[in-house]
Amino acid sequence: MSDTEFMSTDASEELSQQAQVVPDKEEIVQELIDEDGDLVEETTQITRKTVKRSMKITETSSTTKTTTISTPAKLYGKDLSEYDEVDVDALLAQLSPEEINILAKEVDPDDSFLPPNERCSYECEKEPTGPLDRKKLIEHINKQALETPDLPENEPYVKGTVRGKKWLPPARSEKDKEVEEGIAIDMGEEYEQALTSATQEEIIDLAAILGFHSMMNQDQYHASLLNKGQPIGLGWDGITKSQQQKVYPMDPPNNTDIEDSIKRVKDDDPKLIELNFNNIKNISDEKLIQLFDALPDNEHLEVLSLTNVGLTDKTALLLAQAIEKSKTLRVLNVETNFISPPTIVALVRSLLKARTVEEFRASNQRSSVLGNKIEMEITELVEKNSSLLRLGLHLEFNDARHRVAAHLQRNIDRIRLSRLNQRK
């Protein structure tokens, strides 16, 4: 790369100015009408003088011109632009197989579609000894690893010998020592004597009462709260061990006779006050329809539990119609079924006409989220209900939860006051 500079210097400057006067004449002809009404032509001659000025400026200055010459990229002494018109396929066709192998070793084709073995320049000239046996190959590698001696250490290991520079903590200042000493609290002779003479179990009980959870483990804390006495051999440094879980027996299956219970509901049996069909999964829709048809005429049934019985919208709507005509039903539980949010609204709406149901539970249905619109409808229906005391529904929005809880509390307070007045 080379730089060439050209310099030209001239300090002279000429300035000439010439003025030339050029006359310019112009005639204007106008047609006018005189006082007698005749057409008269009036000619006006205007003479202008134009001054022309010409200015000639000759200016020369010192200039510097820099020219940069760059060396073009070359391949084998030729510019790369000369290879644009070369037919590469024709050149490759003229090469022999040996020359192609030499060329392949020097060039790595940037082609992701080629397998790695074709892109690698390494070629093994040994003949294959046979098919690949993975098990023998791993055994050979392990054998070679065991037979290969380890690299000798420069310094043999000696137990107890410290190599290198040993770390020493920095020197502590007197201010840090004073801070760690803490502040002495004078609690009085009685408290100091009591704490000094207190046993470890008493101090643990005191820490549990004061809520110092970090000073003890779980077993010590619960034993102090339940006044069971501290476990033997478990002090401040004790470790809570896992306890064997208690095995509780499985709940017995619900052996309620479905057909007999439906018959008793139809016959209005006075002894049948509570009917529990929970977790009976083989109840058909026909049996449920028979039960719901018999509910309006029954005057003794107060509690109806239908948890996990496969209740759908079709049968739930029939239940809502039966609740509207019921006279004695106080508790209704339809949790863990397949009822949609609009059907739950229909069930809550049916409670307004019944005016006897005090507790209604319908959580854990097919749709876990009711939605803002459904929750607002349920809230408005609950606020119109003066007999409902408990509602088992998961409401997501705070507004709906607070309004429902406040209204249910008002119903409870009103009923409690009415019962107190009746006793008086």
Protein structure class: alpha/beta
Instruction: Note the gap between the termini.
Output: 117 Å
How many whole angstroms does the radius of gyration measure?
53 Å
Number of strands: 11
User: What spatial order of strands do you see in the largest sheet?
Assistant: 7-8-9-10-11
- What average pLDDT do the residues reach? 79
For the sheet with most strands, the description reads: 5 strands, parallel
List the helices and strands in order: EEEEEEHHHHHHHHHEHEHEHEHEH
Shape, principal axes of CA atoms: extended
Amount of beta strand: 15-25%
Model regions low in confidence, pLDDT < 50 over at least 5 residues: 1-22, 54-69
Secondary structure tally, helices: 14
- Proportion of helical residues: 25-40%
Structure at a glance:
The protein has helices at 88-94, 97-106, 116-119, 134-147, 174-181, 189-197, 200-210, 218-225, 258-266, 285-294, 313-325, 341-354, 372-384, 398-423, and strands at residues 2-8, 13-33, 39-59, 63-69, 74-75, 78-79, 274-276, 303-305, 331-333, 359-361, 390-392. It is of the alpha/beta class. Helix 12 (341-354) runs parallel beside helix 13.
